[in-house]
Amino acid sequence: xxxxxxxxxxxxxxxxxxxxxxxxxxxxxxxxxxxxxxxxxxxxxxxxxxxxxxxxxxxxxxxxxxxxxxxxxxxxxxxxxxxxxxxxxxxxxxxxxxxxxxxxxxxxxxxxxxxxxxxxxxxxxxxxxxxxxxxxxxxxxxxxxxxxxxxxxxxxxxx
Length: 159
Description:
The protein has helices at 16-21, 33-49, 66-77, 92-99, 118-130; strands spanning 56-58, 81-85, 107-111, 132-137, 144-149, 154-158. The protein has 159 residues and is of the alpha/beta class. The chain has a single domain (13-158), classed as 3-Layer(aba) Sandwich (Rossmann fold). Strands 1-6-3-2 form a 4-stranded parallel sheet, covered by helices on one side. The two termini are 25 Å apart.
């Protein structure tokens, strides 16, 4: 896989060892007790309503476990976690490709979300708010907008 691909942040073959030593569930996570407690309440509420978890923003310096928490959220919800990084999403189409491949309830984790460019952000906002993706097909006077319904998903952004 190309290193500068938007999908390059997905787990690679060498990630197996790293995944085996990371906490897998909230009960295994050490530190950030208030964040863990809040996430536990939010996850239990979403599961009891049989809905996707609301979007989550995790912030702080490196090493606090933001990536680990994103994967734990997905595991606790019983869904897949699709991971990428803000700087890798250079075009709106990069994000659109990921969004259209999400299943209902999936977690989309965007590390360094503060580094998204404006064109990608403009696609992300309606996807988060309305679970809709507006795409422009063609150019010039023949261009048209197509609206695609997305499954309800959870965005976990880390900054």
